[in-house]
Design brief:
Layout (H helix, E strand, L loop, with lengths): L1 H9 L20 H34 L19 H30 L6 E10 L2 E6 L4 E4 L1 E5 L6 E9 L4 E5 L3 E6 L5 E5 L5 E7 L11 E7 L1 H12 L9 H8 L3 H4 L23 E2 L4 E2 L2 H9 L17 H12 L3
Parallel strand pairs: 1-5, 4-10
Antiparallel strand pairs: 1-2, 2-3, 5-8, 6-7, 6-9, 9-10, 11-12
Length: 335
């Protein structure tokens, strides 16, 4: 009963995510998250006991020493001074609780970090930027953004190992149903791993304040059966789609400074400051999860990124109506 109440309280519905896929730390669907749930239950149990004891003492004090009829408002109850027993209790007990929590946390962290990798392991490099995620698959020579596609592991024989670093400030990787928080630190590589047990979309976010748009630095893990994952890899490895009808639109895009920030493989766009756009329209969202990836939202994003994501580093290009139509048409062809 306790777990159901806490689970319902912490259950968060994310816009654009199906009703059945929610960010709920008490419904783990990967080995690391399951270990962390057990530790969370222990912490909640200890803090619940502390709350009950403290609240009970407060209520007892209010009832036991309340002013009774006929007593003066200035009359005080007997005062106790220098109780060695009380001072020892409120010193020793908190120290013991702290050491228990430290020990449990260290054990869970060590168990996750020292776990032996399964025979089938996918390597992913995740780089945090203000305010989006760069996703690299070194074994496939592939770069994408804001969505991590991984094979599902219903039998625990597959896992995805992530190398985490940052290009600017400290960020933090957190997928409540798959893994706990792990920091992304400039000039340092941290590691974590996930093994999703069910196909679906798992929503996470940056868990370390990193600037103006920290709250809108969302991340999605899309767990797929192995054949679907390999098919996705094959499509993503292809260069940008050449649509003969988009020739004029491509020329307009190539003439703008967009090519200085964004990469589109097989074209003159070789920028690396912003997300790779080679297969932009295969993604579910825009602006690191802020907007569903539709034509209307794409047009609004290109026209003025500061409206949906104030403070982001993508400027408004001040395009004319025809230019905007051409750029959006070209980006829509990047399947």
């Amino acid at each position: 009963m306790f777990s159901r109440v806490v689970s319902a309280w912490l259950q968060v519905q994310v816009p654009g995510v199906p009703e059945h896929r929610i960010t709920n730390i008490f419904k783990p669907l990967a080995t690391p998250a399951a270990s962390e749930r057990t530790a969370a239950y222990l912490v909640l149990a200890i803090t619940a006991v502390i709350f009950v004891v403290v609240a009970g003492l407060i209520v007892y004090t209010m009832v036991r020493f309340r002013r009774r009829p006929g007593e003066s408002a200035l009359q005080e109850p007997p005062q106790v001074y220098g109780s060695n027993q009380i001072e020892a209790a409120w010193t020793v007990i908190p120290i013991l609780i702290v050491f228990v929590l430290i020990g449990v946390s260290a054990r869970v962290i060590a168990a996750i970090q020292n776990a032996s990798p399964p025979a089938q392991t996918l390597k992913v490099q995740l780089v945090g930027h203000q305010w989006w995620w760069e996703v690299r698959y070194p074994d496939y020579n592939l770069v994408t953004a804001n969505e991590i596609h991984v094979p599902v592991s219903p039998d625990g024989r597959r896992a995805t190992y992530l190398q985490l670093t940052s290009a600017d400030v400290i960020h933090s990787f957190w997928l409540p149903q798959l893994a706990g928080k792990t920091d992304l630190i400039p000039n340092r590589i941290n590691y974590t791993w996930i093994d999703p047990r069910e196909p679906g979309v798992y929503v996470g976010n940056c868990a370390e304040y990193c600037g103006t748009q920290h709250a809108n630095m969302l991340l999605r893990v899309i767990a797929q059966p192995q054949p679907e994952f390999l098919a996705w890899i094959t499509e993503q490895q292809k260069p940008a789609r050449e649509d003969p009808q988009a020739g004029d639109a491509k020329a307009v895009f190539s003439s703008l400074s967009c090519v200085s920030c964004h990469m589109i493989r097989g074209t003159s766009a070789v920028g690396k400051f912003g997300p790779d756009l080679t297969h932009l329209m295969s993604r579910q969202t825009l602006a690191a999860g802020v907007l569903p990836n539709t034509r209307e939202n794409l047009r609004a994003w290109v026209n003025d990124p500061q409206q949906p994501k104030p403070g982001c580093f993508m400027p408004s290009m001040k395009l004319t109506g025809p230019q905007l139509n051409q750029v959006v048409s070209y980006l829509e062809s990047l399947q």
